[in-house]
Amino acid sequence: MTNIVLKVSARDLVHADLASCGWAGSDHHLAGVAKQLERARIGEVDYLAVCPATNVPVAKGGVDYQVKDGVGTLWQLAVHPALQSCGIGTFLVEAAELRIRNRGLRQAELAVEEGNSRARALYERLGYVAYDRQPDSWDEQASDGSLRRYETICTLMRKELA
Prior knowledge:
single chain, globular
């Protein structure tokens, strides 16, 4: 077996990246990400891309500073399916936490679907602790282009940042 090292860096996600992010979700989802990039432009959120040397995103995710005072809320975290379990999610979360600390904040929070044990295990390994649960919902695009409301229960997790 040969190990391959993939060097990655984090930068701001930009509109031009969206064309190469189809792995992250539907056209409806990417249109929503485009709206979040407008919020990033005015400083309400950070939206990150993790890229190898090709500068094409292989992971993306946001930090919203408007959800709760003094807290950076991580959301819409995604890693290209072919590159999951390679450490890229850890790199993405750590890059997001750095953005939060750079704003002078000391707490990060996120919500993870209760059925997503793999993601929850990652967040716990990175020091996030569950403190509550709540219903959540969003529109999802079906293969025929129609939208349906997706409803779930999420575990809320937080981490004190050093």
